[in-house]
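Our platform keeps sequence and structure together, in a single record for each protein. Nothing more is needed to write down the fold, since each code stands for a local backbone conformation. An entry from our holdings is shown next, in its original layout:
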Amino acid sequence: REPVRIGQRNISERQRRSGCLVLRGDKCVLARSKMSLSLPATDLATYETPEQAATRAVAASCDIYQEEVALLRDVAPAVVYDTSVDPPAIVSIFAALATGAPPAGYEEEESEDEDDLYDWFTFESALRRVSSVHERAAIRLLADGVRKAIDAGVVVPDYHCTFGPKESPGDMALFSPAPRSTPAPELLPVTVLSGFLGSGKTTLLKHILENKRGLRIAVIVNDMASVNIDAMLVNSADVQHKPEQMIELSNGCICCTLREDLLSGILDLQRQQRFDYVVVESSGISEPMPVAETFTFDDKKSGLLLKDFARLDTLVTVVDGANFMGQLNTVETTASTGQAAYEEDARPLAQLLTDQIEFANVLLLNKCDLLSAEEKGQALATLRRLNPQAKLYETVRSEIPLDQVLNTHRFSITGAEAHEKWLTEARHGDHKPETEEFGIHSFPWRRRRPFHPVRFKALLREPEMLPSSLIRAKGFVWIATRPNFAGIVSFVGSIRDLSQGQPWWAAMERDLWPEGLWDDLKDLWQEPHGDRMQEVVLIGTFDNDEIVAKLDACLLTDEEMEQLPWSFPDDLPVWQGDPEAADGDD
């Protein structure tokens, strides 16, 4: 046997894999496994070259014949390191072109079918959808290499190939590393899990950890109790399915008393530069909106803004399908159920559940195996009405492909800031009809005359005044004895709440109006009362005529409209800054 000569010795025993970035037009192939999307890749077999393994990976992962793929041997492969395994694996990703011509309209829209073994994705979408750092690095390197080879005439594709970032300085920065003197940290993506106790949040978290496929996930678990049971459950998993790091936030809620701890915890994880993702499991009484607002805060100790180091990716709410409809109608509060986050916390649970649903980007109707077809249909229809913008999935034991809850890029700070304008549908008239499954529908009620305070109070306080088929109502109201401010009503099941809103524009001097406001108001304005009106969106299975009659009965009559100035008895809760309501008592 010939001795190994100096310079030819290879003492590496690390795992080696080969994969392929298959390009066509402006898109690449990502293979779909049970839980995520990734570049086709496989371990090298004995006596197999890396190129052979790469084409075999495409055939095995995507069921694409090897003759349908042409390796670009004149483009250097991207050699990247998969550090999610120990020891790290050496992964060689080769560039290739699909030999078939793109179909008509191929570049106009992105194809995706969850039943297919693979789909085609643009450069930006591919970077979002793959879950591992080394795959994103390979996509960037090969896109740059293929483009340079085409520009130099080294590669002459049969069909136009434009895969890569858009030609703008911001996109080109993907190829140009920042100077060493001013490193730009990659934003750490965060998914927040919300949902009532028993809905399946912890089960979802364990499912994520059991199927993370090399993704380095840090976990923040919030528990109202001083002993964090959820954290203990997650840590009891075997080593393979444990998070890389866990932070326990106990004896409080991250949406109120522990917000600073959440902020500093995520900042600390980002500074370590060794995690691909953070999953936050909030307590059962946590509200997603205050958690999202935390990403706009700065750390009091360091002065650093969280949004400069981490990005909120997805807000997931897990809904307990077996108890959902009952929870919507409960009169229990955080205090009555022993879940108060602070001394005076007595939030209605039905309102809290609705807040968790309405602010989510992804909704999981869990425990679907415990529901009849009719019960499941009614729950799905209700969720679609409460939050038509969210992605809605049916789950059993919280099992879902990870790319539906991680790295979805569904959270938008712009959309979040506009959440209080929930009545966009009613105010701007841009509602599009939907199929009214199980009779659950939304109905905008508008009127240009005020409520009588006595009759309106009865509507709020007496359960029989509104039908039990009303699931949800929210909007702005005009009360005759309170001309300066709009009221905000929120009904969830049997819980009915009235709070003070913003001033009516008609109650303000015009020189205080922002520039351009009249252009927005002129179509709504009616003299002599200006923009004052009733705007309430109602959701449920009610008869429209019945609920309209009940609401209209609380308005001023024609005779009462003439009794100016309106000075009816008013013992609704007192509002600040409205002298007309100052004599009320509550």
